[in-house]
Amino acid sequence: MMIEEFKKFALRGNVVDLAIGVIIGAAFGAIVNSMVSDILTPVIGAITSGLDFSNHFIALSSRVTADSLAEAKKQGAVLAWGSFLTYLIYFVIIAWVLFLVVKLMNRSLHSEAQKAPPLSKQEQLLSEIRDLLKAQRS
Hints:
The protein is mainly alpha-helical. Helices cover 74% and strands 3% of the residues.
């Protein structure tokens, strides 16, 4: 009994669609991350003469004497503001790329919707009946 219920739950359209969305989202995330780290970040680095904040930190303990963030973290508490700033810049770049991709997809979908053939006489009548029924329910 419980196995049948689980099968119904797991194989419903919503769950399968969600699983597909998560898998595609993970693959798309890898593509966007590669675009940022392999294409955009080197270009930004070249423009800013290799400016890299990721290794900048403030020591919060007198025991921290290291010059690199990795070594400083081993020695004690540090405020890794450079690492945070780097991730913030990555986030802005990734959000911008995703915005552009979604905008492009919406434009593509919108142009396809405009190319839809006109409704037949039957479809027009059915649409009018549907609208009248909706109005009566309200």
